[in-house]
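Please decode residue identities from the backbone states below.
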């Protein structure tokens, strides 16, 4: 069997990329894990981590690459997201790929659509060293080719993997998480201004007026990088908004990083999931696929990724990042159980195409192609084109 070296943030790091990588390792098997470690990490790495890169130590990236060359792997899988590699605009990733002699497959979790000169140079340098680039949506594929000049023949669309959750009615699950008898509107993910949770809080008074049992649940700890640089100021801002609007009984903060099982319970207990991010050019998200895996109807602010994921009746997109529009959409969906049920089942059916058993097999196939292709030529017909 093929052995893959995977370079990424990893447990005990609390971030979406670490969670993704943990799931990818389980789905693919036979992996050598190289963990990108931030300077504030004090927890011990799990035993399956065989090499660590201190994120801000440039020489670590080169030495880790040389170790990867000798570790018995046939291909290297790099996870790339803003801020997880060291150097200016993650430039240390170039030190790593420049020293690697094995074929490289890079998964891009986000892309800056208006990059600075440095960001453009780093991404183009990475793409030049990458045999295959994985993105998670058609919008991301267009951006990486149009903005960064990637070779379309080497760009593969593989949706973000999701757990294989059962389809459940929300009401029987609610007592297990303390929200029995409530209409639950859920948002989850690491807290930070990019999530736009204040937009939903601003919309909430109108929602509560129409549906008094509504409870808005925000699940997630503050992003560790934000906590390190700014403290918990964003959460404090949200708490102050809740107090000012007299919504203490209608908002619940679950202030911790939840594991897969607890997150699954919150998803199953939700009547509606809301992604109120103010940014309109998102080309990826971990939240939407997870909601669909649980068969939960989603209301989202506009973005290219949301347009793809929520097409064909799988969710709603409000016309603007506007509290009034968001309130109206939530009220309409909470008041129409038949529509919620149809949307839930449509989303759940689509989510079956993204379960990790399938996505892991597609990654495994791509890794095998990369390891076997002497001239960096890939059969793009095998790439998953549905997102």
């Amino acid at each position: 069997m093929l052995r893959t070296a995977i370079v990424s943030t990893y447990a005990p790091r609390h971030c979406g990329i670490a969670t993704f990588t943990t799931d990818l390792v389980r789905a693919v098997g036979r992996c050598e894990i190289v963990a990108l470690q931030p300077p504030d990490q004090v927890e011990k790495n799990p035993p399956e981590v065989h090499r660590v890169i201190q994120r801000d130590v440039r020489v670590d990236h080169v030495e880790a690459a040389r170790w990867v060359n000798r570790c018995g792997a046939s291909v290297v899988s790099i996870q790339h997201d803003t801020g997880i590699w060291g150097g200016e605009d993650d430039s240390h990733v170039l030190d790593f790929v420049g020293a690697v002699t094995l074929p490289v497959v890079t998964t891009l979790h986000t892309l800056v659509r208006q990059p600075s000169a440095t960001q453009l140079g780093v991404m183009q340098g990475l793409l030049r060293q990458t045999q295959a680039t994985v993105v998670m949506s058609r919008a991301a594929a267009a951006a990486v080719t149009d903005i960064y000049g990637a070779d379309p023949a080497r760009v593969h669309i593989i949706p973000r993997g999701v757990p294989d959750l059962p389809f459940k009615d929300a009401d029987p699950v609610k007592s297990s998480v303390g929200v029995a008898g409530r209409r639950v509107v859920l948002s989850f993910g690491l807290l930070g201004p990019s999530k736009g949770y204040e937009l939903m809080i601003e919309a909430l008074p109108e929602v509560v007026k129409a549906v008094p049992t509504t409870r808005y649940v925000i699940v997630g700890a503050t992003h560790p990088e934000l906590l390190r640089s700014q403290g918990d100021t964003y959460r404090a801002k949200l708490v102050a908004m809740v107090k000012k609007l007299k919504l203490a009984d209608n908002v619940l903060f679950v202030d911790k990083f939840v594991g897969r099982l607890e997150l699954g319970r919150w998803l199953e207990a939700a009547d509606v999931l809301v992604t109120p991010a103010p940014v309109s050019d998102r080309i990826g998200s971990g939240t939407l696929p997870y909601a669909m895996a649980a068969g939960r109807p989603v209301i989202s602010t506009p973005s290219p990724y949301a347009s793809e994921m929520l097409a064909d009746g799988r969710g709603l997109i409000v016309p603007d990042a506007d509290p009034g529009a968001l309130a109206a959409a939530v009220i309409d969906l909470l008041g129409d159980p038949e529509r919620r049920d149809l949307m839930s089942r449509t989303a759940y059916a689509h989510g079956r195409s993204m379960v990790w058993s399938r996505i892991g097999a597609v990654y495994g196939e791509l890794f095998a192609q990369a390891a076997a292709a002497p001239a960096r030529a890939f059969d793009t017909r095998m790439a998953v084109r549905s997102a």
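Observation: DSSP finds 15 helices and 13 strands in the chain.
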